[in-house]
């Protein structure tokens, strides 16, 4: 028998415990329910948010039955396309496309396969999309769970992939640039490229310029900071975004 509904909810409520570093609490909870957890990881249709968590927990602890669990999970994941074709709204709530993709990654499947699986679900819900849209949705799900390694992996892949529209692609490139700067301050050039992209939406470019200005101020480069702020102000519509324009002007006055 798989996990009870209460146990499944407990896992979902404690996804953050599988962040870096992992907490022993959820892992201990699952250890007490080993047989049920093994059945759950291969449940069809199952709940892929729970499936991903079980796989992640067992991978991190080097569980002795991990290979068995992965085999069961892959079989359940391979059933997704046929289940989506049945068109059940309930199924797509239980098997959210982003979490299907994350479960595939936690099962050790290639990123391409994980993206394809998630794409099947998103296509049935929202119609045409690009791989970048799918990868970004997966990245956001990972971020919500606090799984920073997956979030970074998926965000990097998303900013290199194709999107249906240019606006979300620019937003993802901004997010990736901000992530890169946190890891390596010398990566500010990536943020500059976001600002220099004249096809990106103005709010995205303003955000990039604002962060560049802050970094320049912190480095004692007042002239450079002012240049970035002036660039941001030139992109702001006073009528549409008076608060943002005022904030930039106040920064220029300081």
Task: Tag the structure with descriptive keywords.
elongated
Structural class: mainly alpha
Structural domain tally: 2
Helix coverage percent: over 70%
**How does the major sheet shape up?**
none
Treating each run of at least 4 consecutive H or I residues as one helix, how many helices?
A: 16
Q: Give the integer mean of the pLDDT values.
A: 93
Shape: elongated
Distance between the termini: 65 Å
Cα-atom radius of gyration? 22 Å
Using DSSP, what is the number of strands?
Answer: 0
Query: Which residue ranges are poorly predicted, with pLDDT under 50 across at least 5 consecutive positions?
Result: none
Give the amount of beta strand, in percent. under 5%
- Strand/helix succession: HHHHHHHHHHHHHHHH
Polypeptide structure, described:
This protein has 254 residues and is an all-alpha fold. It folds into two domains: 1-162, no CATH class; 165-254. Helix content is 73%, strand content 0%. Helix 4 (48-61) runs parallel beside helix 8, helix 10 (131-145) runs antiparallel to helix 11 and helix 13 packs antiparallel against helix 14 (202-218). The relative contact order is 0.07.
